[in-house]
Amino acid sequence: MEHIIRFSKVTKRFGDLVVLEELDFEVMAKERLVLIGSSGSGKSTILRILMTLEKPDSGFIEVEGESLWHMEKKGRIVPATEKHLRKMRKKIGMVFQHFHLFPHMTVLRNVTEAQIYVLGMSKEEARERALALLDMVGLSEKADQYPAQLSGGQKQRVAIARALAQRPQILLFDEVTSALDPELVGEVLKVLKDLAQEHEHTMLIVTHEMGFAREIADRICFLDKGRIIEKGPPSRIFTEPEMERTREFLRNYIEVSNAINGV
Predict the structure, then answer these.
(1) Which residues of 210-225 are buried (b: 16+ CB within 10 A; e: fewer)?
(2) Which of 61, 84, 86, 257 could form a disulfide with 80 if both were Cys (CB 3.0 to 4.6 A apart)?
(3) pLDDT grade for 262, boundaries at 50, 70 and 90
């Protein structure tokens, strides 16, 4: 299986804080890769760099064999132009923690806008596809409502439909359940599980839901201080982690979960 994403010696700083330190990692085509780790370990920054929302300070990133943040010009490697970045963004869809829906647009328009103005589809074709995607996430009856009329879980499902509408090869999910009330988490996780089972997108998922990670992932990467210190199948990572830092993280997660659930 060939890689679809490759990070080579990628470093990202915010002031004096090193968030990613010479990060090397690959994601295989059609793989469901889950990133776990403590807050501040660099998980979300990886996704934001891929979505071109943050620029790396050094290193190279490839998406489908093409450089993301660089391009070749007259035999030299130079920083990517905005035109190049726009082209690369079409390969990737991202679902954010806080939905980022347009509040002044109906659910249907939220899902059709990018299809019309980015992909160049006709309004009728975009509408037909949007309704099919809303049906897939269980929200076809909400097409004419506005985001303010939806629950958090419903907003997140609309955001998933919107990301799918752009027909990306790669889907990024950044803590998509962490802003939801606990009783709404299950409905969003179910949509993601169904998506993983029924479609062949490459999925890169940041989550603090360890049960979900174990169920959906082909591979887990554990980050600590901007580096991947352990990776492997969930069956091993969650039962026989090799690194003490991974064991400590998972112990803390179990203790917090038990405290919340009154165990």
Answers:
(1) bebbbebbeebbbbbe
(2) 84
(3) low
- Return the C-alpha torsion angle 194, 162, 116, 91, nearest 10: -70
- The pLDDT, as a whole number, for residue 193 is 86
How far is Cα 235 from Cα 220, in angstroms, rounded to an integer? 9
Average pLDDT for 166-187: 86
Burial (0-12, 13-18, 19+ Cβ within 10 Å), 168: middle
User: How deeply is 244 buried, as exposed, middle or buried, from its count of CB atoms within 10 A (0-12, 13-18, 19+)?
Assistant: exposed
Residue type for 261, please? N
For the residues 7-11, what does the mean pLDDT come to? Answer: 97
**Quick one: average pLDDT of 150-173?**
92
Whose CA is closest to 46, among 163, 189, 187, 206? 206
Residue 263 predicted with pLDDT over 60: no
Q: What are phi and psi of 160, to 5 degrees?
A: -65, -45
The yes or no reply on domain 1-91+202-263 and CATH 3.40.525.10 is no
Contacts of range 246-253, beta carbons closer than 8 Å, 24 or more positions apart: 246/222, 249/36, 249/37, 249/38, 249/222, 249/224, 250/210, 253/208, 253/210
What letter does residue 101 receive in the DSSP assignment?
A: -
pTM: 0.91
The residue among 69 and 184 whose pLDDT is bigger is 69
Domain positions in the chain? 1-91+202-263
Cβ contact 34:221 at 8 Å: yes
- Rounded CA separation 240/82 (Å): 45
